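User: Predict the full complex structure for these chains.
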Amino acid sequence: MIYFLNIFITIILSILSLTFLNNIALFNVTPILPLFYVTSLTYFRKGFEPILLSVLAGLIYDFFSATPFGFYLILFLAIASLVRIFYQEGMKEMTLIGYFSFVSFGLLAMFLGQVAVLFFGDVAFKPLSLLVPFVKTFFVNMLWALLLYFAIIWYFEKVKVLENKLKLR
Amino acid sequence: MQKKLSIVMTIILFAGMLVFANSKGFLDGAKNAVTVLISPIGSYFSDVGSNFENFFSSIFNISNLQEENAQLSSEVNELRAEVARLNEVQSENKSLRHDLDFVEKSGFEYIPATVMAYDPANVRGMVTVYKGKKDGIEVGMAAVSEGYLIGRAYEVGDNYTKIILITDPTSAIPVSIQNTNTNGLARGELGSGLSMEKIPQGEKVSIGDIVITSGLGGEIPRGIIIGKIENIDSKENSLFITASIRPQANLGNVLRVLFIKN
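Assistant: Here is the predicted structure of the two-chain assembly.
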């Protein structure tokens, strides 16, 4: 049941990020909500669930993005794998520093990946012109990540309580 | 008795004199002076009295007031929602009028589509619409919104089309400055910028000039407005002038798109 709930949330967050949130984008930057969710999901959930959901979020993103197909799939998968490498499965808590570090890494990887796609696609651009878009993307996403951190912690605590109840039955 | 009678007679006489003086307007100045002196005190006491009355009537009507307050709050909320909805309708109406005006004046044939999703990253500029090959859309077709060019179709599926916006770094559109023969290339920049490149030195370019599609290359028809010149970068030793363009379309919030049939 919780597995399906997480699938539902992943889909909803991805769609929200691609559609509705564009209308209320701060500095024209839409937050990458699935990145925050995948990062925290890998902290708290065991097994293949985080990996599969990162693939799902990546596929939805890839369908609507201008980057080559598979870009977001690899990005989200890499973040989930990285969290899994650094932390054991099913952590009881997620520190703000740890969460911020992985989200920052994800944003940096996303930005550099997109610049690499443009560079190898023979698109001319000045290196300095990268600075403003990156700072804007980073700042707005970190603000959203901070806002969602507390909601995510609350959600996974509820999930644990629900899981324990289901086990007792 | 006689004394009392004389006092009464004096009062009657004085009253008669006052009535006569009043009828002739002799007392107007005195009345004004009295009014000026009394009105603040009078209004103060009127207020106190009124508040006193209100205080007691409020105690007796408190339950009615609560009910009335709840009803009014509910009405205010409903009216706010209505105002928000009407604002939305007004903005949609304005946008549709622009589209309609453009369709009537240009004489092109169009395929309308609604935007489904926006590119998630801040580096690229792309929107996806819910119409594709089945509706007659082809790769390269120009997409306009409210009469302004926003981009062109670059990936077309059966039921969807991805539009590369004019601000995407991979976008390059042949343009010219309206009412002149000055040609150039409108190229997207990282972070939603747009610039006009390859303008030969010596060509007359001014801030505020309107940039339109030149029609060169044959994919996009001539005469569709892109934006206005915002800044000019001209170096003496350079072969070309570069100018930054402010797009006229609200590219951050495109809702409806018209594809121009070639």
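Chain B has a mean pLDDT of 79.
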